[in-house]
Design a protein that fits this description.
mainly alpha; 30 residues
């Protein structure tokens, strides 16, 4: 199956979003 949207880009976006959420949570914790 060939997807029109590259999975590696999708995963990179997800990991960036997860990192941003973690950073925000750390800032709130401080």
């Amino acid at each position: 199956m060939v997807s029109t949207f590259p999975l590696d880009r999708l995963f990179s976006i997800l990991t960036i979003n997860n990192n941003n959420i973690k950073i925000k949570n750390i800032d709130q914790a401080i």
